[in-house]
Design brief:
The protein has 519 residues and is an alpha+beta fold. The protein has 2 domains: 275 residues, Alpha-Beta Complex (phage-related protein like fold), CATH 3.90.1690; 139 residues, no CATH class. The chain is 19% helix and 29% strand. The chain has 10 helices and 25 strands. It has a 6-stranded mixed β-sheet with strand order 16-24-21-18-20-19. The radius of gyration is 32 Å and the shape is globular.
Length: 519
């Protein structure tokens, strides 16, 4: 039987009276603080705006002048690199003229390139963020920062001209009778080892988790695709070795090394107990590796973790980039300082050497070379955290350095002293007019095992070089918001130019540096 409206109303009133007669403590239990910020009747305390917790460290980009005015397809300039190359004497005999001096000249050029990234914000995303943050402004700001970080890395290691040589076949050895805390390689087993040399870009793109990137297909915002090289040399041939009987059992260790590859800053190593099935197991910044366990690398995206899956190709240059500082320093035709540390003991390598006079032998040799060859002094030394640590250890190591080193110690009012030392500059004794102090700068993107010498000022009067290096631009940073084609805002940040270096011979590099210090 259907209830009338009056009956339903009366039943509702009866329920309300019943609820009002319920003890207050029972009602109180109906609402308690929820266990989650997004459940129950709970305020949501969201602090605006979003926090941007990522580093934007671009020291080279920040200091190098940006000059707009490039024209044509490339920057071109000429340089006189030496005068009176024959070193003719000045004496003149009676009635005769002097000897004819010869000068050396060189032509330089740098092709303009375009660079940029794109981002988009959907209409719904913009509406959802309303009252919290301007999402379009945030996305555009982050995109500009991404372009700046990318430009910094191009300045360091962009490579459009220096093709890495083929990776040589590794030299592999097996050590037996390791201690219980040594290796874990199986006894009486055949192992294969392969290697791929990596440029700076290859070092950034590759990883044990993710694989080695020989090339990748980049999808662009307009639906087009670019196939880009990943910064790898041609892989080595496979080297093989058979392990022996270790004590305790199955505690073998393998060591492998390859001839150092000019232009490489790192090496990817593959190994496996099954010849023909080698797995990525390590990436080192020296040309050798110590193998103590089975390889366990993985591939992600375009990465390759299986040695046999690598193509027998050289993918070390990128035609869409310009040459960066490390590439210029490693290019022998440009005349800069180059030093590759010796292979040393495989898996250990050759570290920096303490001079015993408060310095590093390798740095002293480089600074002497700059003076002897070009009569100049670098103005800064750029290092990774590993080399920052090891240079400090070099300076503070050895009994003889103690007497040559002065420590300024600040003691607070409570008589407390802070421990720890960091060498922040290096005194160059090979400079005109007395010693020159060179700052040592920690760079976030400098590879471990590499020291880079930079020169900002040429000690040559009337050189016609106002800035040793600059970004010569046809167009500096600009933002484009594209016409609407879907229900989202699409925009890009771009620039067009090239890194122009008037004196690439004034740069230098030490690579293949092992961690540690030889005292």
């Amino acid at each position: 039987m259907n209830k009338t409206q009056a009956q339903l109303t009366q039943e509702s009133l009866d329920l309300i009276r019943q609820a009002q007669q319920t003890p207050s403590e029972t009602l109180a239990k109906a609402y308690v603080q929820s266990g989650s910020a997004t459940t129950g009747i709970t305020a949501y305390d969201l602090e605006a705006p979003a926090k941007l917790l990522f580093p934007v460290l671009t020291p080279f980009r920040n200091k190098i002048p940006r000059v707009v005015g490039g024209e044509g397809i490339q920057a071109n300039w000429k340089a006189v690199t030496a005068i009176n190359t024959g070193k003719l004497g000045l004496g003149v005999s009676e009635g005769n003229r002097g000897g004819v001096a010869s000068d050396s000249t060189q032509d330089y050029s740098a092709v303009f390139k375009e660079f940029g990234l794109e981002q988009s914000v959907t209409w719904k995303a913009e509406l959802a963020a309303k009252g919290f943050q301007d999402l379009k402004a945030l996305a555009a700001s982050n995109l500009l920062k991404s372009v700046m970080i990318g430009e910094e890395r191009l300045m360091i290691g962009g490579n459009t001209s220096l093709s890495l040589a083929n990776t040589a076949t590794p030299t592999v050895a097996a050590q037996v009778n390791q201690s219980a805390n040594g290796g874990a390689i199986q006894d009486n087993t055949g192992f294969g080892v392969g290697c791929v040399a990596l440029s700076f870009e290859g070092y950034l793109l590759s990883g044990v988790t993710g694989g080695v990137v020989q090339s990748y297909n980049r999808a662009n915002a307009d639906g087009s695709f670019d196939i880009l090289n990943g910064g790898t040399a041609k892989p080595s041939a496979q080297a093989n070795v058979v392990t022996g009987n270790s004590t305790p059992a199955n505690t073998n260790t393998l060591t492998a090394s390859v001839a150092a590859v000019a232009g490489a800053v790192a090496y990817a190593w593959f190994w496996g107990a099954n010849a023909g099935n080698l797995t990525l197991g390590a990436i080192t910044t020296i040309n050798s590796v110590k193998i103590t366990a089975n390889a366990a690398g993985t591939a992600a995206g375009s990465g390759i973790a299986n040695f046999q899956a690598l193509g027998a190709t050289n993918n070390s240059t990128n035609s869409l980039h310009f040459d960066g500082f490390l590439t210029m320093a490693q290019n022998a035709t440009l005349g800069g300082y180059q030093k590759v540390q010796a292979t040393g003991n495989a898996g250990t390598g050759t570290p920096l050497t303490a001079s015993g006079r408060g310095g590093c032998v390798e740095i002293d040799v480089a600074l002497k070379w700059f003076w002897d060859t070009y009569k100049l002094s670098p103005t800064s030394i750029h290092v990774n955290s590993q080399e920052q640590k090891n240079i400090t250890a070099c300076v503070l190591s050895g009994n003889s350095s103690v007497g040559a080193t002065r420590f300024n110690v600040n003691v607070d009012a409570r008589g407390m002293v802070a421990g720890g030392f960091r060498v922040t500059s290096y005194l160059n004794q090979f400079a005109m007019g007395g010693s020159v102090e060179i700052p040592i700068k920690l760079h976030p993107d400098m590879p471990a095992g590499t020291i880079f010498f930079e020169t900002d000022d040429l000690p040559y009067p009337l050189s016609n070089v106002a800035q040793v290096k600059r970004m010569l631009l046809r167009r500096d940073y600009y933002q484009i918001e594209w016409p609407m084609r879907t229900r989202k805002y699409e925009f890009g940040v771009y620039f067009d130019g090239v890194l122009q270096h008037y004196a690439p011979f004034s740069e230098g590099i030490i690579t293949n540096i092992a961690d540690g210090v030889t005292v």
